[in-house]
């Protein structure tokens, strides 16, 4: 994809891909998956996305945006990593860089956890206003999506839930 956007600080990959679609004028979710990943079967996930080598390959090497930097700076991997044994953690990074097929959520114990993932994306209205003023657009911050986080750490205000679920009726949307 030509002109793939550079991620903002702590921006979710989920948000980055959505911005790429907005910037390119792509309205079809399947077409966006084709353009970004070269595969319309990729399932967008908020916390531990895969195919990050495809995304890092969109950038010139001078930016030093690698699959590993995307994993550590733009996903929830650093939240889970301290609680995962080393072999599983390394496998998780490989799956995120390439293809996971849902394995990472199983191996990390997320699928069976009593700590459930938020069903809706969360945001801070004040942060959104600041993003709009600074960048001319809004984006999803990964810290807002951590289970149990209900307040903005920057503004000490409650996070709001966005009314549209990130997991859609059709897996390609």
Automatic annotation (TrEMBL):
Domain TniQ: 4-159
Entry superkingdom: Bacteria
InterPro entries with a match to the protein in the record: TniQ
Protein name: Transposase
Organism for this UniProt entry: Vibrio anguillarum (Listonella anguillarum)
